[in-house]
Design goal:
Elements (H helix, E strand, L loop, with lengths): L1 E5 L5 H10 L6 E6 L6 H6 L5 E5 L4 H4 L2 H12 L7 E5 L6 H9 L11 E6 L3 H7 L2 H8 L2 E5 L6 H15 L4 E3 L27 H4 L8 E6 L2 E10 L5 H9 L5 E8 L9 E7 L2 E7 L9 E8 L3 H9 L15 H5 L4
Parallel strand pairs: 1-4, 1-5, 2-3, 2-4, 5-6, 6-7
Antiparallel strand pairs: 8-9, 9-13, 10-11, 10-13, 11-12
Length: 338
């Protein structure tokens, strides 16, 4: 589940419409959260979305509790809806922190948090942040910042704004675009239709099939590239080194996915990794009969230094002949749901 937020007029609905028209077969369920009695935004996306729940007369973050939100998500996440990704378009006056808590706190096992995308109006933001300093706090919560309407400012002005935002958000990717044209591949993966789908952000064994090589590829789209880096290791990984990589990620990294085999004597399971922004989750599972204990990871980001990221991933390989002790798994357990 992806949350799209940003101040009034930043271009959230424009970006959502672009995703709906250019999603390469992904079935998107949308929750539109308008502030006001008339759901103008929901009218704009009507007819282009596979399923939609429209919330009017106030912010979802203060008008709907977790239980009620779960009921809305359940309508979109039920298997017969065949929805791949749920996008929550927040009101321009919504508080992203509360929305994140609602999604992360959902009891629905089909819902996985897919990150907060904060949309910024390149032309209006310098003035808007003076009037609404709380927007700086919202940016610090973001997993991806989209600087929209980049064509309305001079190149030097855009560079200055992106630099100021980057100082504020650290390693979080800052993606500049025009008319909300962001490549859907940066936000979610194209699903396969061979089996019924549920509303989840990432599916690994199938989706990693498109990333078999050890390298990277770029997709030029207007002002920025997004980069995908694939990593495969026949040797087991050192969990401490992998956790170090994830907790101090390369600049611009937005998502990481895949599975890992760890060189720990007492731990022979397959660990699936989900990472969006700062949110890391490991899920232990079983290797299929005859499946090699091969670790495969994919990183996706905007402005991410691909060669440096791949080099750092190679450093997570456990090269010694002896096994690590169980204490090496403590970092992984910290990000494993109990």
């Amino acid at each position: 589940m992806l949350i799209v937020a940003g101040f009034l007029g930043s271009g959230k609905t424009t970006m959502l419409n672009h995703l709906l028209r250019n999603n390469r077969g992904t079935r998107i369920g949308v929750v539109v959260n308008d502030f006001g009695a008339i759901n103008i935004d929901s009218m704009l996306v009507a007819g282009q979305v596979d399923a939609m729940v429209s919330l009017g007369n106030g912010c979802v973050c203060c008008a709907v509790d977790v239980t009620e939100l779960d009921e809305l998500f359940t309508r979109l996440a039920q298997p017969r809806a065949n929805i791949d990704v749920i996008v929550v378009e927040a009101s321009g006056l919504a508080e992203p922190r509360n929305l994140i808590r609602m999604v992360v706190g959902s009891d629905n096992p089909r819902i996985r948090y897919g990150g907060l995308v904060e949309v910024v109006d390149a032309e209006q933001f310098p003035e808007t942040r003076e009037r609404h300093p709380e927007l700086l706090t919202h940016l610090r919560l973001a997993d991806l910042v989209v600087v929209n309407k980049a064509d309305r400012v001079a190149v030097a002005e855009l560079d200055t704004l992106r630099g100021e935002i980057a100082e504020l958000v650290g390693t979080v990717p800052v993606y500049a675009t025009t008319r909300g044209c962001i490549d859907p591949g940066l936000l979610f993966d194209e699903p396969l239709r061979e089996t019924p789908r549920v509303a989840e952000q990432l599916s690994f064994d199938e989706l990693l099939a498109d990333h078999d090589h050890d390298g990277d590829h770029d997709h030029r789209h207007l002002h920025d590239d997004y980069t995908s880096v694939s990593f495969t290791s026949e040797r087991e990984l050192d969990p401490r080194r992998l956790i170090g990589f994830l907790e101090d990620p390369p600049p611009g990294l937005f998502r990481a996915k895949g599975f890992a085999a760890f060189g720990v004597a007492a731990e022979r399971r397959k660990f699936v990794l989900h990472m969006v922004g700062r949110h890391i989750v490991f899920e232990p599972g079983a290797w299929r009969r005859g499946e090699p204990r091969t670790s495969r990871l994919v990183l996706i980001g905007a402005g991410m230094p691909a060669d440096a990221a791949l080099s750092r991933l190679r450093e997570t390989v456990h090269t010694a002949d002896d096994f690590l002790d169980e204490q090496a798994m403590l970092g992984v357990w910290r990000y494993t749901p109990h």
